[in-house]
Specification:
2% strand, two-stranded antiparallel sheet, globular, single chain, 471 residues, mainly alpha
């Protein structure tokens, strides 16, 4: 049922979810099977970027697995070990999907909390098992979670954990391809380009090798490889190629970057619908390669197509974010918070600790509202949408008689980018500048030979977002 719904109903999400939901409703179904069906539904919803539903199904999977775990502890001793291993595998899949959904929505702190909790839980389970396959799967999942959370949270992290026990078995483990991609991201973040290239290359090799293996070798008793099968591998392949292409862009090796981005685009299309927003980061980078090689018409077409896939309308974004960044509305929010706490006088005049606390609470609330609005403005994380807007702005700035359009896209980019910053609360439109975004994405006039290229970003197809980092 899962195979039919996930693979045979590709591009027909509603039909796939209906099939899986009917299976989950069958009487007498085990907790593990119900958990797997919920994870399959999360997989389908992730394919169309419906992250709220991904979280709903991941939570339902957790509930089903918890009930099964209680029953397992009362089972025959000979069955307990096998059942707990299957539970552990499915739990890791559910948490991985939940973490991905949270990161894609910008809920970085919550994602870190969820991942950390599961790592502690699974570490205890792992210590009770010496099965190589169990250790490899757990190590892979832990590392992937740590990689994403080390990079995708403002506070950073301790860096990648060693892939213990993976050398002898890694060719047989589908999930390790994604781990190496995540490790590569970390090395780029730490400005270790050569090591990052090696990690991306390894991810590409593993994804390609696993995808070409016989169908029977990709199955497992708990269905973990089915749910991380061909479509997942194609996405990892695209992500790894994108990582390698970014290294080529850093070296300004435009022909090689174009070749790799074309291959990444082909892999991403094979991973699902050719209208999925996972194509957007690839098209954005390919548009930048065309921009840098004076193929303006092609570049603009790619930027427009990426915006279409993201459902990004700069006018709509401005309408959504303007009320939350207008200096007058920010002041009014602080005043309202102060009054709700029974404090007299304006916030501007409040020199007491209570007055400052009220103003701080109001600005924090405004920041949360701003981030939520920015996240709802497109199908991707605001950081990725900001990158596209800025790249298009840079192109339009270099073209004659396109200044007004450039301003529209540039303003949208700045607003989206500031919504992802920790200091975004209380930043009004009057004080908003392009300095911060230029430091990362490069000067607005870069294609006219002015300014600098910026520090760059790391792009993730899996998370549909960009990250600060040296490229």
């Amino acid at each position: 049922m899962i195979e039919y719904a996930v693979y045979q109903c590709k591009g027909k999400a509603d039909q796939a979810v209906d099939i899986l939901r009917s299976g989950s409703a069958q009487p007498g179904i085990s907790g593990i099977d119900r958990g797997r069906l919920q994870i399959a539904m999360a997989t389908v919803e992730a394919e169309r970027g419906n992250w709220a539903e991904v979280l709903t199904h991941a939570s339902a999977s957790k509930t089903a697995l918890h009930s099964e775990e209680m029953l397992t502890l009362d089972a025959e001793p000979s069955l307990v070990k096998t059942q707990l291993k299957m539970l552990s595998h499915v739990q890791l899949m559910g948490v991985s999907r939940a973490v991905r959904a949270l990161l894609a929505q910008g809920e970085d702190k919550l994602a870190l909390d969820v991942a950390s909790m599961q790592v502690k839980r699974s570490s205890a389970q792992l210590s009770q098992s010496s099965h190589p396959d169990s250790r490899v799967t757990a190590a892979a999942a832990f590392t992937a979670l740590q990689m994403h959370n080390s990079i995708y949270t403002p506070s950073g992290g301790a860096g990648p954990a060693p892939l213990e026990g993976t050398d002898a078995h890694e060719q047989g483990e589908v999930c390790l391809a994604g781990v190496h991609k995540a490790v590569g991201d970390w090395h780029v973040y730490e400005e270790r380009g050569e090591v990052a290239t090696a990690s991306y290359t390894k991810a590409l090799e593993l994804a390609t090798a696993a995808a070409t293996a016989s169908p029977s070798s990709s199955q497992s008793a708990d269905g973990s490889r089915l749910l991380q099968g061909a479509l997942y591998l194609k996405e990892v392949e695209a992500d790894a190629l994108l990582g390698l292409a970014q290294q080529d862009i850093l070296r300004e090796d435009w022909p090689k970057a174009e070749t790799r981005l074309a291959a990444a685009l082909e892999a991403a299309e094979a991973a699902g619908s050719d209208a999925h927003p996972r194509l957007a980061p690839i098209l954005t980078q390919l548009g930048w390669v065309y921009s840098r090689t004076a193929r303006v018409t092609y570049a603009e077409g790619l930027f427009r197509e990426a915006a279409k896939l993201m459902k990004l309308d700069p006018t709509r974004v401005t309408q959504l974010l303007y009320p939350l960044m207008d200096s007058e509305s920010i002041s009014e929010a602080a005043e309202a918070e102060s009054e709700s706490k029974g404090q007299a006088g304006s916030v501007a005049e409040a020199g007491s600790g209570e007055g400052k606390e009220a103003a701080g609470a109001a600005l924090l609330l405004r920041q949360q509202q701003l981030r939520k609005a920015a996240a709802s403005a497109t199908l991707v994380h605001p950081s990725l949408a900001a990158l596209l807007c800025w790249r298009y702005c840079q192109l339009l700035t270099a073209l004659p008689k396109r200044e007004r359009e450039a301003d529209t896209w540039g303003r949208c980019a700045v607003m989206l980018w500031h919504s992802t910053r920790d200091a975004s609360a209380g930043v009004s439109l009057e004080t908003l500048s392009e300095t911060d975004i230029e430091a990362t994405f490069g000067s607005r006039g870069r294609l006219k030979g002015a300014g600098h290229s910026g520090s760059g970003v790391i792009l993730s197809i899996a998370m549909l977002r960009s990250l600060d980092g040296q490229l």
